[in-house]
Amino acid sequence: MLTKIALVTGGSRGLGKDMALRLARHGHDVVITYQSQKEAAQAVVSEIELHGKQAAALPFDANDFSSLEKFVQQFRELLQKKWNVQSFDFLINNAGIGATLPFAQVTEEDFDKFMNIHFKSVYFLTQQLLPLINDNGRVINISTGTTRFCVPGYSVYASMKGAVEVFTRYLAKEVGAKGITVNVVAPGPVETDFNNGGNRDIPERKKILASQSALGRVGLPKDIGGVIAFLCSEDGGWINGQRLEVSGGINL
C-alpha cells in the first residue's frame, strides 16, 4: 500500500502536534509547519520518525500573506526531494492564534491579523495546494465551538472561523468530482497553551468549562487528533461537507 502524506499547519504544539502524531500512528508520513518554534517542530518530527514514518517541518507564517507563494514552492521541493512525488493526500488547516478581545476594544490591526491567519491564509493556501492533492484526498479545516455558542471576547476569532465553515461547504461541493472530502472539525475547550493556556492553567476557568460539558471535563489534545486521523481513513470517506464538533457535549 502506498504511503500517504499529510500536511498539518501549526503542528509544532498543541492540537496540531497531536494531529501529526496520530496521523503517523495510523501509518501516514507527515509534514508540519511552525511559525517560530523550530526546535519544538523538530522534536515532533523526531517523535514521528520513532514511529517508523517519515516527517519534516517547514516554516510558515499565516499572517504574512506575501510569504504564501514561497511556502508552497518549498513544500513542492520537499515532496520531490524527500518522497520523490509531486502530490500529497491530506491537508489539515490547523494553524491559528487565540485572544480574548472584547468587541469594543478590537482594532483594525487585530481584525486583519485574525482574518489573515484564520481565514485568508486557509482560503488561499488551500487554493494553491489543491492541484497537488491526490484524488480521494482530504481537506480538514479547524474551527471552534464558539461558532455555535457565544463566549464574550471571541467575536473576531469566531467570525473568522464561521467564514471557514461556510468556505468548507463550498469547497466540498467544488472538489467532489476528484473524490476529495472537505470537513470542519470544531473543538470545544481543550487543555493546551492556546490563548495563553487559560483552559489548562486557570483552575477556576477549567472548573467552569468542565461543568458545562456533558462529560464533565475539559478536552485533551488526544480527543481531537484521533478524529482527524479517522477522517483521513477509508472509514471516514463518506463524511463530507460537515462540521464535526468535538467538544464532549458542551452547552447542549
Question: How many domains make up the coordinates?
Answer: 1
The spatial strand order of the largest sheet comes to 3-2-1-4-5-6-7
Percentage of β-strand residues: 15-25%
Q: In terms of per-residue confidence, which ranges show pLDDT below 50 for 5 or more consecutive residues?
A: none
Radius of gyration (CA) equals 17 Å
The run of helices and strands is EHEHEHEHEHEHHHE
Largest sheet: 7 strands, parallel
Q: Quick one: how many beta strands?
A: 7
Verbal overview:
The chain has eight helices and seven strands, in the order βαβαβαβαβαβαααβ. Strands 3-2-1-4-5-6-7 form a seven-stranded parallel beta sheet, sandwiched between helices. The protein is globular. It is an alpha/beta fold and 252 residues long. α2 (38-50) links the parallel β2 and β3. The model has no long low-confidence stretch (mean pLDDT 94). 43% of the residues lie in helices and 17% in strands. α4 (108-129) packs parallel to α5. The protein has one domain: 3-Layer(aba) Sandwich (Rossmann fold).
Give the arrangement of secondary structure elements.
Elements lengths: L4 E4 L5 H12 L3 E6 L3 H13 L4 E5 L8 H16 L4 E6 L14 H22 L3 E10 L12 H21 L5 E7 L10 H4 L1 H9 L9 H11 L11 E4 L6
Helix pairs in contact: 1-2, 1-8, 4-5
Write a short abstract of this structure:
This protein is an alpha/beta fold and 252 residues long. It has helices at residues 14-25, 38-50, 68-83, 108-129, 155-175, 198-201, 203-211, 221-231, and strands at 5-8, 29-34, 55-59, 88-93, 133-142, 181-187, 243-246.
Question: Descriptors for this entry?
Answer:
alpha/beta, Rossmann fold, 17% strand, 252 residues
